[in-house]
Design brief:
single chain; Aspartate Aminotransferase, domain 2; 15 strands; globular
């Protein structure tokens, strides 16, 4: 099928919300390792990791071999948890080895949205409260409950139910809502969580959900000390703390398999998806026993949660991450990329901020470093130019002005250097087109 036919049928029959990256869309048909190919055979370096889903590289040979062997053996594709399967137990065992201290229960879903929905339900069941607190600029999924706690007007709908949710200011250091700088910060953003509870609830909450690095929000990276203060506040008001690691998990941030463990976040529930399955449709959560035990006597069922094939892919992904030392690779390659991008700030006036952890990096583009006006058009143009040079990247932020970089954590130094050179050259072109004077 020709690319034009695909676009035409999408336009006619898909929801109008099905957006397409790039002015001239590309049809991706093949992938291997850190690269993808379009229908013409052109190769691209995948700098956004299949939208932060690819951890160990596309079509990893060990995963391919295992799945093909399962098919050859006619292994059952669907079991649900109504029947026994060793695969789901093996994955649970591996995940709990990577869990922060005190988290010892597991459940599996098809996506991060479902995992977060389940976390909300469990928190409400445990506490007897209904209020969920979230952060502005946050994003936790596309289902009803997760969209209710979405911090972006662009993702929410007129009829979106928002009862029993409240929002606190985001720990967005580059655009601090309190006008502070790192040297004058007294964690006003964390203290705002408490005043939000005091003024927008009856004094108790079911839970707070927070991403260790805010993904769709533009890879906003809170100061590490933020989490100790916020979890203290949440627990003090009777709530459970949900750490949404859909984008930060699977070793991407370069310290542990889960960033919550590295930052010593006192979470009651940690949700996962995306890179956990290296492209497979699997999500899940780990939680403390008191949260899990509150579900006793009730029925909860997920038709596809824990099915053998995605479960095996997730387990093998975790094993490859550990065996190939990819967490350390994410740290070292991410630091090199981060330092290189920060150096570009000296020559590129469009770059307002560079932030992130490991191989989860955001580059915020602004029209002016003082006013920090969002450079939305410039960001889209930059993505297009990088694509023309063979590099695929993503974007985020409330106004789509943050370049999101999240390649497979198996990426090597030569590929990182290729990425840096393409971004650098493309920035010069964008700045020239829009009349910026490069430094």
């Amino acid at each position: 099928m020709q690319k034009e036919d695909i676009i035409d049928k999408r336009r006619k029959h898909f929801l109008p919300t099905a957006a397409i990256y790039h002015k001239i869309p590309i049809q991706l048909v093949k992938a291997k390792g850190e690269y993808v190919w379009d229908e013409t055979g052109r190769q691209y370096l995948d700098g956004i990791g299949g939208i932060v889903c690819i951890s160990v590289g596309h079509n990893h040979p060990k995963i391919k071999k295992a799945l093909m062997q399962m098919l050859e053996n006619d292994e059952i594709q669907h079991t649900s948890l109504l029947y026994l399967s060793k695969h789901v137990v093996e994955l649970a065992d591996r995940l709990l080895q990577e869990a922060p201290e005190g988290l010892d229960r597991v459940s599996f879903t098809n996506s991060g949205s479902e995992a977060n929905e389940l976390a909300f339900m469990m928190s409400r069941q445990t506490t007897g409260e209904s209020m969920i607190l979230h952060l502005r600029h946050s994003y936790h999924g596309g289902t009803s409950g997760t969209l209710a706690v979405c911090g972006h007007n662009t993702w929410r709908f007129r009829a979106q139910p928002v009862a029993n949710v409240i929002s606190a200011e985001a720990p967005y250091c580059y655009r601090c809502p309190f006008g502070k700088k790192p040297d004058s910060c007294a964690l006003e953003c964390a203290k705002n969580v408490e005043t939000t509870i005091q003024t927008s609830s009856h004094g108790k909450i079911a839970a707070m959900i927070c991403e260790p690095v805010m993904g769709v929000g533009g890879f906003v990276t809170p100061p590490p000390e933020y989490f100790k203060e916020v979890t203290r506040i949440v627990h003090n008001y009777g709530g459970k703390y949900i750490s949404d690691e859909v984008q930060t998990g699977a070793g991407r941030c370069g310290g542990n398999y889960l960033l919550s463990k590295e930052l010593k976040i006192d979470a009651d529930i940690v949700t996962m998806a995306k890179g956990m399955g290296n492209g497979a449709a699997i999500g899940g959560l780990i939680c403390k026993s008191d949260v899990a035990s509150s579900m006793s006597g009730k029925l909860y069922f997920n038709t596809f949660g824990g099915d053998p094939y995605p479960v095996v892919q997730a387990r093998m992904t975790l094993d490859i991450i550990k065996e190939d030392n990819l967490i350390e690779n994410a740290r070292t390659q991410g630091q090199f990329l981060m330092n290189s991008l920060k150096s570009m700030m000296k020559t590129h006036p469009l770059i307002g901020d560079v932030r992130g952890r490991g191989l989860l990096i955001g580059v915020e583009l602004v029209k002016d470093p003082v006013s920090k006006v969002y450079a939305t058009e410039e960001c889209a143009e930059l993505m297009d130019l990088c694509k023309e040079k063979g590099l695929l990247l993503g974007k985020g932020g409330l106004f789509g002005n943050v370049l999101r970089i999240a390649p497979p954590i198996s990426i090597n130094r030569k590929q990182i250097e290729e990425m840096i050179n393409i971004i650098d050259a493309s920035l010069f072109e964008v700045e020239k087109k829009y009349g910026y004077k490069s430094n």
